[in-house]
Every structure is written in C-alpha cells, then in structure tokens.
Amino acid sequence: MWLQIKCSRHEIVKGQTLKLRIRVIQRAAYLAMTQLHTISIQNFRNCQHASATLSSGLNLIIGDNAAGKTAIIEALWTLATGRSFRTAKTQYLIQHQQDSCTLYAEVHSSHSPKSHRLGLNKSLHKTTLRLNGETIKSQVAIAQQLPVQLLTPESHKLLEEGPKARRQFMDWGCFHQSPDFMPLWRNYQRGLKQRNHALKKHLPKAQVQLWDQTLVENALKIDHIRQDYLERLTPYLMTFCQTLMPEIKDEVVCQYRAGWPKNTEDLLALYQQNYEKESHLGHTQYGAHRADIRFKFAGQEAINTLSRGQQKLFVCALLLAQASLHEQVLNEPVIMLIDDLPAELDETHRIKLLELLQVLNIQHIITSTAESLIPILVPETTKIWNIQSGEMVVKPLSAL
Ligand SMILES: Nc1ncnc2c1ncn2[C@@H]1O[C@H](COP(=O)(O)OP(=O)(O)O)[C@@H](O)[C@H]1O
Ligand SMILES: [Mg+2]
C-alpha cells in the first residue's frame, strides 16, 4: 500500500528561497518504527494495575470523568521524561496507601533488532530506573528510547504562560537531535546554580565570576543548537499551520530570543558589566536559562491574534512540525499522547489531526469520554479500551 502526502511552500531562510517538501511515503515493509508495544502501570494514581499491548496506530482509551484516563497518559509521560505534567510531587502519583509506583514499557524500534524494556519505580525518596534489566542512573537513556510528545487541554498554555514551556518545547527537539545538547545543558545548569548561590549569599565577587566563563561557553553552544533547531523547524511549522488553519493567510514567524540582549557582542563582558545589578537581584539575569521563542503572525504575537481554538491548533502544528523533523533527522517516528482530544478540537479538526497522525506514521494514544467523538479512520491499526477505576479492559473491534 502506498500513501503519499505532499505539501509544498516557500520560505525565505537567510535570504534564500527554500522549497520545503514534506513527503511522507508509507510502505508497510519499509516503515521506520518506534512503537510502545506493551505497557504496565502499577499503583499509579487510581490505577492499581493496568497492562496493555498497544496497536501501532490509534489507541483509544474511553472512560467517564475520574476513571483514570489522564492518569494513564501521565504514567506514560512520567516513564518517558521522569516527571509528571500535573505535579512535581511524587506523593500525588503514588496510589494512596502504597509505598511506590512502577511503570514499565516495552518499546520496539526499527533501529534495533531487540525491543527495549524500560522501567521506572518511584517511592517518596527514591527513583529507580531500569533499561533492559539493568539499573541505570540517568533518565536520558530512557528518554532517548521513548520520544513521546504530549497534547493536553492545558497545552495552549505554551503560548500563554512564561517562556519555560516554550524552552522545554525547543529543548525537546535539541535533546533528541543533538547528542551534545544534554551535557552542555547539564554543565550550564551546574554553573548557573553555583553562580546564583554565590550571588544570593553575597559571596565575594571573585566567587561569582569564577563561573562566568563556564556559563558563557556553554550558553553560546546551547544558543547555536537552539537557533539551528528552530531554523530547521520553521518550514515544517509553516506547512502544518497552513494545513490546520488554512484561513490564516499570513505565515508564522518564529522569533528566537537567546536570553540576553540582541546586540550583545561579548556575553562575558555583559556578565561583568552587570555584576552590581545581579548581586542586588541575587540571581543571574542573562543566559541560556532565559531563552524564549515568540510566534508571530503579521507582526502580532500569536497569543494576541489567534482565537482559543486556533491557539490549540497552533500547538498541534508545533507538535506535528517537531514530529516530522524528528522523523526526518532520526528516521524514527515519535509517539503522541493526547489527553481528552474532544476537549481540544472540534470534529473537523479532530479528523484532520487523526489523518495527519496516520499519514506521519505516529503511534497515538488518545483519551476521550465518549467513543463516538473519535473517528476510527483505520480499524486495522486501532485498539480501544474502556477504563474504569484505573482498570483498562480492551474492547473488541467487532463491537465498533
Ligand atoms: N494518588 C492517588 N491515589 C489514588 N487515587 C488517586 C490519586 N491521585 C488521583 N486519584 C484519583 O484518580 C482518579 C482519576 O483521575 P484522572 O486520571 O484525572 O481521571 P480522568 O482523566 O479519567 O477524568 C480521580 O478519581 C482521582 O481522585
Ligand atoms: Mg482527565
């Protein structure tokens, strides 16, 4: 079976006309694949034990309010990233009266003949990570095996709130595509923490400035990776904006902000000049930790010109752009978690999004309160579960 989508448009990058063509060709035998194959969730929120073998396409989890739908999405996100999107406190994740929660997944990848077994156990004071039966120290290896993206009814906050969510969005891509990014970011964070500590405690100037060189070196490299990532992402974003919101004729512009004033020629000198002010503030004012992206249409910030519905579509376009670039660079699709899809999009756009996910070969795990709200486009790669009090029961497709 061949299935093709072609979208073309023009974009000016550094004064050149670049013709972008997103061309997705699906052919059963040559599919690049990253797939959550089996999952198991224990003592997480209201879910005492749920396990499932997932489909490579649409996985639909249906349940009433408080059945545990978001908990399943949250569990998968927590396994992939080490943190929840609802709380920073482990105590809320662990089921009441239990000491720990355990999350497990088997991931199939076309890059490796064997599947990967990922595990995470969280108790109040300890997190244990396992990869293929071995205990590992860092979340990085798990995150690399499980490139998941998340869309929730809160996702439009990416535009609304402070720059942290937009940095996380950008850094997701940098992390997966640039092996250097994570060590640079860690070094930067370490330096920043020390420098902020020295500033806050009013330690001697030399102890603050001890960290300036490290910060500057890492910040400039991080900046370079981020700029490059956004430059490559923008044409995809334009295409998906046009696909999802054809009514908007203006092209989206991504304005990247490094985290220090635009005209800065010497970041080290800036730190030195700014010392008195920072010493007063008690923290480092400029750097990679202050980066941001502004999305604009016709010179206006997206948050000010798009309707709430369009803001949600814009976030979908951002994720799809990121997913497509990821596929292009790493030759593996991402996995998309979508909580409460009907709360996100109207029917026309739900169908559009589901078609795009299908064509982009993205395994998707979607929750909804009602089955009738989610169109089943490809029954062969669809699985449906009913969830009640955190317990998942698969529903035979013949019952559709
Ligand atoms: N730590 C916990 N232990 C037990 N139950 C919990 C815990 N945290 C939340 N819950 C309960 O889990 C249920 C499922 O919540 P949620 O996943 O948000 O449901 P849904 O998304 O289906 O509406 C809620 O009834 C909530 O009170
Ligand atoms: Mg929910």
List keywords for this structure.
six-stranded antiparallel sheet; 17 strands; Glutathione S-transferase Yfyf (Class Pi), Chain A, domain 2; 400 residues; binds adenosine-5'-diphosphate; alpha+beta; Rossmann fold; six-stranded mixed sheet; single chain; binds magnesium ion
Give a brief rundown of this model.
With 400 residues, this protein is of the alpha+beta class. Helices cover 40% and strands 28% of the residues. Adenosine-5'-diphosphate binds at residues 45-46, 63, 65-71, 92, 94-96.
Q: Hey, roughly how much beta strand do the residues contain?
A: 25-35%
Q: Which small-molecule ligands are present, each listed once?
A: adenosine-5'-diphosphate, magnesium ion
Number of strands: 17
Stretches with pLDDT under 50, minimum 5 residues: 1-30
Your description of this structure?
The chain is of the alpha+beta class and 400 residues long. It folds into 2 domains: 31-147 and 336-400, Rossmann fold (3-Layer(aba) Sandwich), CATH 3.40.50; 159-331, RecF/RecN/SMC, N-terminal domain (Glutathione S-transferase Yfyf (Class Pi), Chain A, domain 2). 40% of the residues lie in helices and 28% in strands. It contains 14 helices and 17 strands. The protein has helices at residues 69-81, 90-93, 140-145, 157-160, 163-177, 181-200, 205-209, 212-244, 267-273, 275-281, 302-305, 308-330, 341-344, 347-359, and strands at 3-13, 16-26, 34-44, 47-53, 58-62, 100-109, 116-123, 127-131, 134-136, 148-151, 252-257, 292-297, 300-301, 335-338, 363-368, 382-388, 391-395. The strands form 4 sheets. Strands 4-3-6-7-8-9 form a 6-stranded antiparallel beta sheet. Strands 10-14-15-5-16-17 form a 6-stranded mixed beta sheet, sandwiched between helices. Helix 5 packs across helix 8. 38% of the residues are buried. Magnesium ion binds at residues 69-70, 339-340.
